[in-house]
Amino acid sequence: MRSLGDSAGINMKDTDSASFAAEWRATPTLALRLGYHYATSSLIARSLNFAVLSPSVNRHHLGGGFNYAITKNSSFDFSVLWAFKNSVSAFEAIPQSVGRPFGGFNPAATVNVWAYGGAFSVGYNYKFDQGDDSWFPTHF
Question: Residues 14-63: pLDDT tens digits?
Fold first, then answer.
């Protein structure tokens, strides 16, 4: 185990991930979107004490949304995302000290890290016509 100030930081590992997404143009003005993302955990069980600083334990994410075109130049976007609950458990790590230069683990205490959550976004898009140098939309 390394100390927090060491070059290893909070001692996370690389992850592998895969994403899949699809868009369906239901009408000329409406596009529906759906996506899924999976990632392996970046947390190392022996260093969960610092995972509360960055609880990236979610492995499965599902997202969806739509785009609605108001005119040829303007549209609205709406999207939602859900990160499914996941948890990781390990023994509590004991930091390095003078009497324990390599740190250690406390088998009497367990650290449990879990997370889940959601997000949504709403956006307005405007595409300026080629040759249109105005900063604001001039027509709708």
Answer: 888 899 999 999 999 999 999 999 988 777 666 666 665 555 667 899 99
* Contact (CB, 8 A) for 75 and 67: yes
Residue 54 lies in a domain: yes
- For residue 112, give the nearest of 61, 56, 53, 49 by alpha carbon: 49
Beta bridge partners of 22: 34
- Residues 6 or more apart whose Cβ sits within 8 Å of residue 135: none
Q: Is residue 133 part of a domain?
A: no
Q: Which residues contact 30 (CB under 8 A, 6 or more apart)?
A: 66, 67, 68, 69
Would the pLDDT of 85 be above 80?
yes
Residue 40: inside a domain, yes or no?
yes
